[in-house]
Amino acid sequence: MDLAIVDTTLITFQKEGLGIIEQGGLGIRGNKIVFVGKSDDLRDADEVIDGSNCITMPGLIDAHAHTGLALLRGGAQDMPEIEWMRKGLGPFVRNMTEKDKKAGSKLGVIEGLRSGTTTFCEFSANVRKYVENVYKPFKVRTVAVETLNEVTGVDDKGLYEFDESKGELGLKRADELVDEYGENEMVKPCYGPQALDMVSMDLIKGVNKHAHQREADIHMHVAQGERERIQVKNRYGDSTVKVISDLGMLNHRFVAVHCHDTEYEEKECMAERGVRMVGCPSSIAMIDGIVPPIHDFLSLDAAGGVGTDQAPGPGGHNMFRELRTAAVITKVRDRDPTRLPSWEVLKLGTVGGAKALGIDNGVGTLEVGKSADVITIDMSSANLTPRVSEPFHNYVATLVHSSTGKEVREVIINGDIVIRNGGFTSIDEESIVKEGQERGKCLFERGAKDWEEEAGRMAKEMG
Amino acid sequence: MDLAIVDTTLITFQKEGLGIIEQGGLGIRGNKIVFVGKSDDLRDADEVIDGSNCITMPGLIDAHAHTGLALLRGGAQDMPEIEWMRKGLGPFVRNMTEKDKKAGSKLGVIEGLRSGTTTFCEFSANVRKYVENVYKPFKVRTVAVETLNEVTGVDDKGLYEFDESKGELGLKRADELVDEYGENEMVKPCYGPQALDMVSMDLIKGVNKHAHQREADIHMHVAQGERERIQVKNRYGDSTVKVISDLGMLNHRFVAVHCHDTEYEEKECMAERGVRMVGCPSSIAMIDGIVPPIHDFLSLDAAGGVGTDQAPGPGGHNMFRELRTAAVITKVRDRDPTRLPSWEVLKLGTVGGAKALGIDNGVGTLEVGKSADVITIDMSSANLTPRVSEPFHNYVATLVHSSTGKEVREVIINGDIVIRNGGFTSIDEESIVKEGQERGKCLFERGAKDWEEEAGRMAKEMG
Asked: Do B437 and A386 touch (CB under 8 A)?
């Protein structure tokens, strides 16, 4: 055995419950988990990590993220939804270079790693660059979604104009991505139409056909709000869910992100057909003032996961914070403190996210034969004390509502120790932060003029 | 000058805005701030702290907390509001010793200190013990509220029974507290009727009279929900706000906590009369599924602060998390992403809290002549990068939405450095955590029988 974590509290997420094992031990050989049980029954390993005072659990799964935007952290908040994309984000995004996106992605990913995320679902145009430049060198598991978007201009009036050549290029890239990584253990490639209002009917049909041929998932923003609704209604005379349903896209290979602008019957229909759902609580709360319907999907027995989305709206890529936010805002939406209890939220962040992304055969639980994506959390911090097992495991609630993410001590992905005793083993964090700071400063300065002009233009148009 | 923080970004909260000074410096002599300005203009000091890559700002003010309950962290969540007190908290609270409360308070206070809190408003019976055993030795500023509660039994049917001798004892304790600490710079003593349904008319009148004579504040839970409403209606035929208004209690010496079960006109009336308001976002969201009306009070130009309340419901005493929660849940309550913008939320946690507690003459801003309650936050963490000043200060949003509280580096209270470079200077954190863990474990075990019985009894009664 290569690595053992001993004398620890395991939350395995095996079977229906949390599968807690006190005084537990976990054994890893190569990239696989080979032992889950009582610490006393663990045989010798080459390296032994003392897990006392720690919880050991599966790594968290960030089921939807655009990490390339992380340099714009704190850049677009507290504004009306209608302004967010154009006035908030747009002026800076227009001024981003490929190097800015790469530097931002590295920053976002190390933030996520430090707070226990071991799988990122990256949704980006030319996502292969993120895979090759960030995720692969960092040894981080990825669901890589190639964004497809044909919109050339958005003017809030009339229908968006499309450029079919953008769609063709995107589809070609997505096909190549799937062909290249289809068998890769660390990368699951997917097709990612940005949203139904942002692609032509020809492209969405093409995506559906190509994804079906290659048995690949389609991961798509669905029913994001009023602007999408109006565009889709004016173009097709129906709602997003109805249109993609008629196209035969609602099936077990479809991942629907957001879904807050849907009727209950539409959610029911998606759930029945095996569609998986991802909600991004902080992002949608901050940008739209809306609570994503995660609880609704769970109550329909659909697979559901949680994502951090992007940094400029919600603040960053900390999944512990995201899980707590999911619980708290769902409770106030429904005026019901029993909604999204801690155990359910923890599952959302692990096995739930794995199911939502269709990677639960490999990760999401601690089970013999699964890939070794494992984190340890130091519970001896004042904010996580006390930790008790009788008459119930208080630390399940404590993990969700009291941890900050910074108590994560070890992060192991596919058997590789990425963070050991709170420090990165091979990632040069200091230089990434330094580059992020320098590039971020230049980017905000470069975008300042556009930002001011856009504010003026919007003020004029709206006034 | 005794202490200087140099080359730092100051958020002073002077005047209406945030009063940001880049390349700023702060000077402290004794317990007072003696310089706030450009770092270059700072004269020599005995000790110099390098504040580059840091934000330096006033310490956070936790405007309402019951830290004595911290050993019950993770002990009462995800349950119907009707069960929270009796089934969740009650069985364990009944088994708490004075030593448990003291150990819990220490744990809660070091959690708060580590996340930048420099003033705690402690609301507890026999609050003097917390002042003498925790706050004074820890050198932490306190607004000490003596809880007054005459209820002998709560059975959900009929009116609560009162024991007048409990009230007399409490009032005597409160009088003594005010007499003892009235002139103390580090302790502001207040009268704390638990709630209108939990004290007799005689006692509330007595409190009002004694507080008026001593020019002391009354800090009271107001309009906490259905059970209070029913009790007050049945006893007095009116709402809580109407009853205390008729008693002449609504004035500039009254601090109303929670207030979620109030009509808009009642909030308006309170605001007009100078009542100050404290909301506890995580606590009320977790226990009741309700968003406290903090935004409503601010929009009525009333002073408002934020409190962590207790650990068992919301999870703990981290004010950074509390501020973010306030913003996010207010946005979704009103379906308006512009609600509680970051700058307003930061003010709530500092100068707002100081005003709400009536201590803004001494603390809450960085100004010459004020007490030196100051924190520094290390902004070089990946989750707080980048930090820019043009075209706007993105770090205001970043502080609220991306920090975890664990980036706090220095905590200075009344001129004393309590935390330096991330470590406590004189508080023995390790032994406090150890005692908290041991006592917490015993307490949960001791309460297990009552907890199981209470669950059964409630199931029977409700069934």
From this structure: yes
The answer to whether the CB of A390 falls within 8 A of the CB of A381 is: no
CA distance linking residue B238 with residue B52, whole number of Å:
57
**B4 vs B28: CA distance, rounded Å:** 6
Nearest to A440 among B80, B318, B386 (CB): B386
pLDDT tens per residue, range B402-455: 999 999 999 999 999 999 999 999 999 999 999 999 999 999 999 999 999 987
**In terms of C-beta distances under 8 Å and separation of at least 24 residues, what long-range contacts does A35-40 make, across chains too?**
A35/A1, A35/A4, A35/A368, A36/A10, A36/A12, A36/A366, A36/A367, A36/A368, A39/A6, A39/A7, A39/A8
Instruction: Tell me what pLDDT residue B156 has.
Output: 63
Please choose, from the candidates A2, A15, A5, A16, the residue with its C-alpha nearest in 3D space to the C-alpha of residue A38. A5
**Residue A132 token pair:** 């090759």
Q: Are B107 and A385 an interchain contact pair (Cβ–Cβ within 8 Å)?
A: yes
CA A97 to chain centre: 23
- Residue-wise pLDDT tens digits, B11-44: 999 988 899 999 999 999 999 999 999 999 998 8
pLDDT of residue B459: 67
Minimal Cα distance from A394: which residue of B? B74
What structural domains and CATH numbers belong to chain A?
3-58+364-424 (2.30.40.10), 60-357 (3.20.20.140)
CA distance A397 to chain B (A): 5
Residue B12 identity (one-letter amino acid): T
Q: What's the pLDDT score for residue B370?
A: 98
CB neighbour list of residue B345: distance below 8 Å, 6 or more residues apart: B323, B324, B326, B327, B400
CB A363 within 8 A of CB A58: yes
> To which residue do tokens 């969740």 refer?
B88
Q: Which of these, B306, B338, B337, lies nearest to B117 by C-alpha position?
A: B306
C-beta atoms of A401 and B318 within 8 A: no
What integer pLDDT is reported at residue A91 of this predicted model? 95
CA pair distance B166, B155, nearest whole angstrom: 19
List B residues 30-49 in contact with A (Cβ-Cβ < 8 A). none
Around B425, how many Cα atoms within 13 Å sit in the side-chain half-sphere?
14
Indicate the pTM of the whole model. Answer: 0.97
Which sign does the torsion angle of CA B45, B50, B51, B57 carry? negative
Q: Which residue of A has its CA nearest to B404?
A: A404
- Partner residues linked to B40 by β-bridges: none
For B314-346, give the DSSP string: T----HHHHHHHHHHHHHHHTT-TTSS-HHHHH
Residues 6+ apart with CB under 8 A from A221: A194, A195, A257, A258
Please give the residue that has the higher pLDDT: either B456 or A179.
A179
Backbone angles phi, psi at A359, to 5 degrees: -120, 20
Tens of pLDDT along A126-152? 999 999 999 999 999 999 999 999 999
Q: What is the ipTM of this complex?
A: 0.97
Q: How far is CA A1 from CA A26, A30, A58, A107, B380, in A?
A: 10, 8, 19, 33, 38
Residue A76 has pLDDT above 90, yes or no: yes
Q: How many CA atoms lie within 13 A of A428 on its CB side?
A: 6
**Confidence label for B462 from pLDDT (cuts 50, 70 and 90):** low
